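Protocol step 4 of 6: structure prediction from sequence.
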Amino acid sequence: MNLSINFLSVAKMATDDYVGFTFFVGCMAMMAASVFFFLSMNSFDKKWRTSILVSGLITFIAAVHYWYMRDYWASNVESPTFFRYVDWVLTVPLMCVEFYLILKVAGAKRSMMWRLIFLSVVMLVTGYIGETIDRENAWLWGLISGIAYFVIVYDIWFGTAKKLAVKAGGAVLSAHKTLCWFVLVGWAIYPIGYMAGTPGWYESVFGGFDLNVIYNIGDAINKIGFGLVVYNLAIQSSEKTPAL
């Protein structure tokens, strides 16, 4: 009972608190996306339902964390870094899993999935250390995190994932390309936010940005966008499958 009251309570927020506004909008947008993905699962062939389920889980996990992050911001007026990284360490590996799921039709192996998951965890753990634990060496942890990110980019654009997507062709190749662009362009928002919130040689360039607004907008676009790409792929593939 106390938990439900806690969850439904709304902290007071100033009308000009644009960071709090993006937390709230991000929460509602991702919750709506979750409902949409979950309710649409039975509209597709069985082989695509897991992909749609994962898309719904990504946005649902993010929506719950955003509710608490918004409340944390309203109460403390400081970045909810801990909650944000807990969200990412759950959702970003799931976004990597989506590559494996859509490429299974071309023979993708679990080793590719685990490689992407491992790289994403390295990217996030080192980012967390640099942003919270060892801020004096934030540039070094950011460099390690960035290297893991670029290895992921290389893998999906030029490595095994790319070859599998070309082998699958058609709607799978098109969806893979779109997800690759999300990772290359959309995920680039996160290192920008990292540099905006940590000390280093890059302070003069990114120091004036509000990392919370950057992260919030990036999260909503990337996570919902990822799911919509997979949803579109499932629709296209299901339409081509003859009725039994």
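Step 5 (inspection) to follow. The mean pLDDT is 88.
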